[in-house]
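Colleagues,

For the teaching module next term, I've prepared a clean inverse folding example: a structure given as tokens, and then the sequence designed for it. I'd like students to try predicting residues themselves before seeing the answer, so please don't circulate the second half yet.
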């Protein structure tokens, strides 16, 4: 019985924190658009990725896909 006096306030604290985090997520826009991210992964990008400055692409290094020199 003594443990209930300790556990009930702890549970109330955790529930209050969970409710506060939920309302924070809703107010900050976490749930505004649920469909775009699910669809974005299904489609390729329109433009291929460009190598950053200083990087060489695999094709320009003189090797083909099998790793053999030309």
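(Answer key — instructors only)
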């Amino acid at each position: 019985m003594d443990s209930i006096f300790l556990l009930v306030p702890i549970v109330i604290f955790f529930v209050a924190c969970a409710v506060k985090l939920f309302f924070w997520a809703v107010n900050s826009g976490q749930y505004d658009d649920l469909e775009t991210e699910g669809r974005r992964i299904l489609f390729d990008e329109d433009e291929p990725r460009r190598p950053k400055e200083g990087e060489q692409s695999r094709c320009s290094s003189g090797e083909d896909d099998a790793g053999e020199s030309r």
